[in-house]
Design a protein that fits this description.
Shape: globular
CATH class of the largest domain: Alpha Beta
Structural class: alpha+beta
Number of domains: 2
Number of helices: 11
Order of helices and strands: EHEEEHEHHHEEHEHHHHEEHEE
Strand content: 25-35%
C-alpha cells in the first residue's frame, strides 16, 4: 500500500496569467504559497482482478479505459498501469468546493503515488510537467500550469512561465517572522456560493487573444507580482494589501463575471470592520473569500460575516510526498 499527499495553494496578485494564450506571448509570473490543506491518494493491489476507484463515487471496472473519471484514467495510462489496483482519494477541502485548484493537487498526488507503487523515484519537476500534460493536453481542461507547479514544489515561491514554455520556480527568501506575520494576517471564508469558472475562462481567453487593452491590464498584474516579490524579500508587508487591492481592481476590469451584488455586499461589510484588503478567489464551482487584515481585527470580520464559514490554515513547506509505504 502507498499513500501520498499533495498540498493546495493560494496565490497573490494574479489573474489566470498562467494560461498559454497569455504567457506564450508575454511571459508570466506569480507569487504563490502552499497551505496545510491536502489531497490524499491511497493505492493498493487489488485481489479480485478488478480496478476499483473511490472518490465522491465508486467505480468498479475490468479495464482502465472503462473508468469514467478522466483524470484517473489518463494518469493510469500515462504511468502504464493496467493491472488490478484499488485507488481511493480524500481531501481536506473537496475539489468541487475549492478555489484552491485541488484537481491539480489530485493529479500530482496520484502520479506520485503510482510511481511509488511501481518503485520509481520521481522529481517535483517531473510531477509538475506530467500533471500539466495530463490535465491540459490529455483531458482538455481549460486551465493554466501554476497549480501543478505550486503543489509539486511547495512553499512560498515566485513562479515564472516563459514564452518558450519553460518554467522556473524560485523560492522567496525572507525572514520566518515575515512569513508568520503574513500567514497570521490572512483570513479565509467559504461563501456557500456555487459558480462555474468556464464562462470566466472563455471570457478571459477571448479578451487576451483579441483585446490589446485587456492584455495591458494583464501585464500590469504581472508587474505587481514582481513588486510583491521584492517587498517580501525585503521583509516589507506595509504595502501588501495595497498591491493586492490594486490587483483586485484590475481583475474587475477583465471580466464582468468576477463579482456580483452579494460579493460586493460582503466586501462593504468587511471594509466597515476594517479589513484593509480583500480578494475573491474562484475555482470551477465554489467560491471563497480571502481577506488581509491585522490579526487583532479578525474577530471583527468574523462577527460581521458570521454567515460565512471560517477556514483555518497555515503555510506549509512539505509539498507532494509519500507518507506511507507498506
Amino acid at each position: 500500500m502507498i499513500i501520498s499527499k499533495a498540498p493546495l495553494r493560494i496565490s497573490f496578485a494574479w489573474w489566470w496569467s498562467d494560461m498559454a494564450s497569455f504567457y506564450q506571448k508575454f511571459g508570466w509570473a506569480v507569487v504563490s504559497t502552499t497551505i496545510d490543506k491536502y489531497v490524499y491518494i491511497t493505492v493498493n493491489k487489488k485481489f479480485d482482478n478488478k480496478i476499483r476507484l473511490s472518490y465522491s463515487k465508486t467505480e468498479l471496472v475490468d479495464e482502465v479505459n472503462e473508468l469514467e473519471h478522466a483524470l484517473v484514467r489518463e494518469v493510469l495510462n500515462y504511468t502504464w498501469i493496467d493491472w488490478w489496483i484499488e485507488i481511493a482519494s480524500i481531501a481536506d477541502i473537496p475539489s468541487k468546493w475549492s478555489w484552491l485548484w485541488s484537481s491539480s493537487a489530485f493529479t500530482v498526488a496520484m502520479l506520485h503515488a503510482l510511481y511509488a507503487f511501481k518503485w520509481i523515484h520521481t522529481s517535483p519537476q517531473k510531477l509538475a510537467n506530467e500533471a500539466c500534460d495530463i490535465e491540459i493536453n490529455k483531458c482538455w481542461q481549460p486551465i493554466g500550469k501554476q497549480d501543478q507547479y505550486a503543489s509539486a514544489f511547495w512553499g512560498l515561491n515566485f513562479i515564472k512561465f516563459n514564452t518558450d514554455d519553460t518554467v522556473s520556480v524560485e523560492p522567496i527568501i525572507c525572514l520566518k517572522e515575515t512569513k508568520k506575520r503574513l500567514s497570521d494576517n490572512l483570513i479565509m471564508l467559504y461563501t456557500w456560493i456555487t459558480r462555474s469558472a468556464s464562462n470566466i475562462l472563455q471570457d478571459q481567453n477571448k479578451n487576451i487573444v483579441s483585446n490589446e487593452d485587456k492584455q495591458e491590464i494583464m501585464k500590469k498584474m504581472v508587474e505587481l507580482s514582481y513588486v510583491l516579490k521584492n517587498d517580501l524579500e525585503n521583509n516589507n508587508l506595509n504595502s501588501f494589501w495595497r498591491i493586492l487591492h490594486e490587483n483586485w481592481l484590475l481583475k474587475k476590469q477583465m471580466s464582468g463575471w468576477i463579482s456580483n451584488e452579494q460579493i460586493d455586499y460582503w466586501y462593504n461589510k468587511a471594509m466597515k470592520a476594517w479589513a484593509e484588503w480583500w480578494k475573491i478567489l474562484w475555482a470551477w464551482w465554489w467560491g471563497f473569500l480571502l481577506f488581509y487584515a491585522p490579526k487583532e481585527r479578525h474577530n471583527d470580520i468574523y462577527t460581521t460575516l458570521s454567515d460565512l464559514k471560517k477556514v483555518k490554515f497555515e503555510f506549509e513547506n512539505e509539498g507532494s510526498k509519500i507518507i506511507f509505504i507498506h
